[in-house]
């Protein structure tokens, strides 16, 4: 894959950002791209690489619409080269496709770049991504934010089983485990150290043992050489906010301000981890509502996919009204715990309906 780097007016290298997606992720990627553009510095240039599997010409056209008003942001599209695709063939694990491993091969995929920001497509950006690109990595090959599983471990007082399983594989300190949805990669250093074969070796040897394959491989290979990034740049801790002991466990760590970040909506990047995505069938859970609160507001401001997004919003609104009527009808016939559970469900459905009727929560 060849790239032609562009430069900002003041001689700064273009801010290089990479995504890796399949066709079903087109809509949420458009939202992410638009949020990136809105906050991009007009005095810098941005070069966005989208490595994909199965995007159609129509998909690509719609993604270009998302950035059309921002001439300092350029999109490049590429599929995985045959040689690299062959390496990753038949490595689908659970809900992850082999394309998730593209971030492991960024140094090979983008040979003319010495640094890049990798972002998952299920993110919404609220600040200039150039801040990530310019981060001081202190001589480390990558920068990242610690994972929600680490926060959960701090609350519990011991590492989660997911992390303990990685200790024999090379993760010597489970509480340093980071999330791979937002990465700053020093590609020049990764090439100099010839790190890609080691990453692929971990995938080859421990494929079935890895719960989050690409993320686990990066943690195993680089576990002691990861520069911590501010949690605001990968805010995915909403699942833990109401757990007992959160504040005490987070005191003195980089997580100590997450309740304030949540209250003030002061995250710089919101990451919708997990399977409950707001553009999928609605879920009657707090986690789904939290992501809906963020994503639909951004989606309704994105110029591309507007007819599709509006139809989806109408569909979700009808579903929620139906669910609400059904649960309200059943409430008088519910008793004890079932009554309280149905009351809670009705309250959540009302909040969800408000979110959909207003295009945000």
Structural notes for this entry:
This protein has 361 residues and is an alpha/beta fold. Helix content is 42%, strand content 14%. The chain has helices at 26-38, 57-67, 82-88, 106-109, 130-133, 148-156, 161-164, 187-192, 196-206, 213-222, 246-250, 258-264, 286-299, 306-330, 336-357; strands at residues 15-22, 46-53, 73-79, 115-119, 123-125, 142-146, 178-186, 226-228, 269-271. The protein has a 7-stranded mixed beta sheet, with helices on both faces. Strands 5-9 form a two-stranded antiparallel sheet. The longest helix has 25 residues, at 306-330. The model is unreliable at 1-10 (pLDDT under 50).
Shape: globular
Strand order in the sheet with the most strands: 3-2-1-4-7-6-8
Radius of gyration: 21 Å
- The class by helix and strand makeup works out as alpha/beta
Point out poorly predicted stretches. 1-10
Oligomeric state of the chains present here: single chain
Order of helices and strands: EHEHEHHEEHEHHEHHHEHHEHHH
Mean pLDDT: 88
User: What is the distance, rounded to the nearest whole angstrom, between the alpha carbons of the first and last residues?
Assistant: 41 Å
Q: Can you summarize the main beta sheet?
A: 7 strands, mixed
Q: Please work out how many helical segments DSSP would assign.
A: 15
Residues in helix, %: 40-55%
Number of strands: 9
Percent in strands: 5-15%
Key traits:
single chain; 361 residues; alpha/beta; seven-stranded mixed beta sheet; two-stranded antiparallel sheet; globular; disordered N terminus
